[in-house]
Specification:
heterodimer; A: mainly alpha; B: 3-stranded antiparallel beta sheet
Chain lengths: 157, 229
């Protein structure tokens, strides 16, 4: 069990990566409230394994992507509303741009959403995306190609 | 290029998201060393759930952006929605526009010193619409010590009636002849924030969430809110 004193380096890592991670996951799941929870859980996982992780940044991508995928696969209407209700951001209405983008990303499959956010928001390579999604590198290209085709129509001016 | 468009749109979409740090919570480490994952089984109080349902309904559907009109020569802040900039959910067209939201008047003399209107977000969906105004001394993350205010008005058929029926406890005050309830520990309220809410009719609910603002001040603000359909 982890000794719950601040592990060297973890607080700085947390401060540096939290905001970006929440934003990234918000795009993946279409909800800031859910994203905050997923990001928090990912950070907890990293904290628990801090001494054993070689690349916490890459591990964070993987934890966040897994958390987003789990949520996307298990969500239903009622759980979405409950999660929003449990969020401290209940009445913080999302920006118009966020809703439009989330709506467009919502046209994609779960894995396409994750891949496209990691590629175009986080600027990860296909190899890094494959690591985050725990799939072969060759799988990522077709995911992105199909996602772009959908989004091109959704976001056309 | 679609790639650059995606980069730009994603960056713009999330630029206002500024999560509060929960580092202390992690470092403190609850028993067992892990934090339970988000659970769909969390059951917030009914009134909060109802608010969340309404917020989600209006948020997931069409969103509109309004222009803020501030009157410089009056002692009120008047918010008037202009034609929307987006249309129904599922459409990215901006050709068809619809008016949503409502007009609010807040007596600025009731606001804490230095606090001013930061932004306004009118929203609409198939079941109703709402308008949320945020006030602070400076634009920012709304995660500091305040003073912050968020005033929201939600319209939906029967919404306020259901809310009133499910409210528990006694009202803390009367706001323009309506019973008002205060809450500060619901799961839908940020730590350190307080909610004051009242129904103005069967279909309309007003809520003021505040942080770093005295209850009496919030009540004075509440009593100054005027809604113009």
């Amino acid at each position: 069990m982890t000794d719950h004193t601040a592990l060297p380096g973890f607080p700085a890592f947390y401060d540096a990566r939290l905001e970006r991670t929440v934003r990234q996951v918000s795009l993946m799941v279409g909800s800031v409230a859910v994203a905050e929870d997923i990001a928090h859980d990912a950070m907890v996982q990293i904290y628990e394994r801090w001494d054993a992780i070689d690349d916490p940044g890459a591990y964070l991508y993987r934890c966040a992507a897994n958390g987003a995928l789990r949520w996307l696969r298990s969500r239903d209407r009622s759980s979405t509303l409950d999660d929003e209700a449990g969020s401290p951001r209940l009445t913080v209405v999302p920006a118009v741009e966020f809703v439009e983008m989330a709506d467009a990303l919502g046209r994609l499959t779960d894995r396409q959403r994750i891949a496209v956010v990691l590629r175009y928001y986080e600027d990860l390579s296909e190899t890094e995306i494959a690591a985050a999604l725990d799939c072969r590198t060759g799988t990522v290209g077709p995911l992105l190609t199909r996602a772009r085709a959908v989004l091109r129509k959704e976001l056309a001016p | 290029m679609i790639e650059q468009l995606l980069r730009d749109r994603m960056e713009a979409a999330v630029t206002d998201i500024r999560p509060a740090s929960r580092l202390d919570e992690i470092l403190a480490g609850p028993p067992g060393g892990t934090v339970p994952p988000p659970s769909p089984s969390r059951q917030p109080p009914r009134r909060i759930t109802l608010l969340a349902v309404a917020a989600a309904l209006v948020a997931v559907a069409a969103f509109t952006a309004g222009w803020l009109v501030r009157s410089a020569d009056r002692d009120t802040t008047r918010i008037e929605n202009q034609p929307a900039t987006t249309t129904a959910a599922g459409s990215t067209s901006t050709a068809e526009r619809a008016r949503v939201g409502t007009q609010l008047t807040v007596l600025t003399s009731t606001l804490p010193k230095g606090v001013r209107l930061i932004d306004e977000t009118p929203t609409s969906g198939g079941d109703g619409f709402s308008t949320t105004l945020r006030f602070a001394a400076e634009p920012g993350t709304f995660t500091g010590s305040g003073p912050y205010l968020r005033i929201s008005v939600t319209h939906a058929d029967g919404f306020a009636t259901q809310w009133a029926e499910r409210s528990t406890g006694d009202p803390v005050a009367q706001v323009q002849g309506h019973d008002a309830w205060r809450s500060d520990d619901g799961p839908g309220i940020q730590p350190g924030w307080t909610s004051l809410s009242w129904a103005t009719g069967p279909d309309e609910l007003v809520e003021i969430q505040s942080k770093g603002v005295a209850d009496d001040t919030v009540l004075a603000i509440a009593r100054s809110v005027q809604i113009h359909p």
